[in-house]
Give the backbone structure.
Amino acid sequence: MENVVSARIVQLQVLDPGEIRRVQLLLPDDVEIEGRRYEIHDTMRPGTAFLAKPWGGRTRKYRRRMYTRSNAANIEPRVLETFINDTHLPQSDTSPWWQSREAETWYEEEGIAVRVTIDKEAGIATVYENASQCKGANLRLEPDGEWEGRRLVCVAFGTGVTPFLSYVRYMAEQEWTKSDRKGDGFLTLIASVRHERQLMLHQDLLKMAQELPQHFRYLPVLTRSWPSDWSSMTGRIIRSKVRSSGEEQIDPTPLLELVPNLSQSDLRMCGSVTACRQVTQGLKDYQIFPLTVRTESW
Ligand SMILES: Cc1cc2nc3c(=O)[nH]c(=O)nc-3n(C[C@H](O)[C@H](O)[C@H](O)COP(=O)(O)OP(=O)(O)OC[C@H]3O[C@@H](n4cnc5c(N)ncnc54)[C@H](O)[C@@H]3O)c2cc1C
C-alpha cells in the first residue's frame, strides 16, 4: 500500500498567469499511520522528484503526479518546492488546475497528499523520491565527492529548470561558498523560456552568478519576446527545420556558441521530450560528444 502524508500549500505564486506557478508544500513533523507515529525525514537528493496527488480539473478526481523539487532538503527540510506549468495538451488534467482560482481556495482547507516510504523498524517516514540511483534517464545528483570536480552544462527548457535550481542551491550551500575549497567544479545553467516573466528564480540566479563567478554561470534565453534592454541570448538554442524530403535538420550552433567546450563537459538536460531529443540529435549530427549525458524529459 502507498503511504501518504498530507502537506499544506504554503506558496502558490503566479509567475506567468495561467502558465507557470511556483508551488511550495509543507510537510508536518510526523505522520500517524495505522495508529503509529512516524517522524518524517526529508533526505531527497537534488535532481529528484516527489510524488503528490493533486486534483485533476478535467477528470474531477485526484491524480498521481511527479514534480521535480527545485529547493534542497538540507536547506529547507520538509518544504517541497517546485514549478508547475500548464501543458496545454488535450489530455492535460492537473497542470491547468494548478494555475486555477480553484487551486487557491481548495487548499486553504484541504491538504495535498505526498508519498512517503515507511520504515517500521526505524520508526521513520521518508519523503519518496523518484530515482534512487544515478542513471542516464534521470537527474539525481551524483554522490558528494563525485560532482565537485565536474564541469556541468545544464540545459533547461521551461520548468525543466527545477532540478538545476536544486543543484545550484545545494552546491552553493555544500561547497561553493567555502573559502577553503578551491576545486575547479563549474556549473553553466542555460534556462530557455518564452519570455522574461517565465524565468524562474531569475534574480536569485543573477545574484548567485555575480557572487560565485568561479563556480557558476547563468545564461537565461528568451525565445518569443524580450525587453528592449535584454542583454542575454534570444531565440532558440537549437534550430530545427523540416526539409522538403520530410527529414528534420537540426542546427545546434547557437548552443555551441554559448558553450563552446561542450565536449569537455558533462551535459545535463531537462524539459520536453521534443526539445531534449533535438539537442541530442543536433549534437550527434555535429559530432559533438560531451563526457557524459543525462536527460530527464516529461
Ligand atoms: C520525473 C518527473 C518530474 C516532473 N517534474 C515536473 C515539474 O517539475 N514541473 C511540472 O510542471 N511538471 C513536472 N512533471 C510532469 C507532471 O508530472 C505532469 O505530467 C504534468 O504537470 C502534466 O500533468 P497533467 O495532469 O495536466 O497531464 P498528464 O500528466 O499528461 O496526464 C493527463 C491524463 O492523460 C493521460 N495521458 C497522458 N498522456 C497521454 C496520451 N498520450 N494519450 C492518452 N492519455 C494520456 C494521463 O494518464 C492522465 O490520465 C514531471 C514528470 C515526471 C515524470
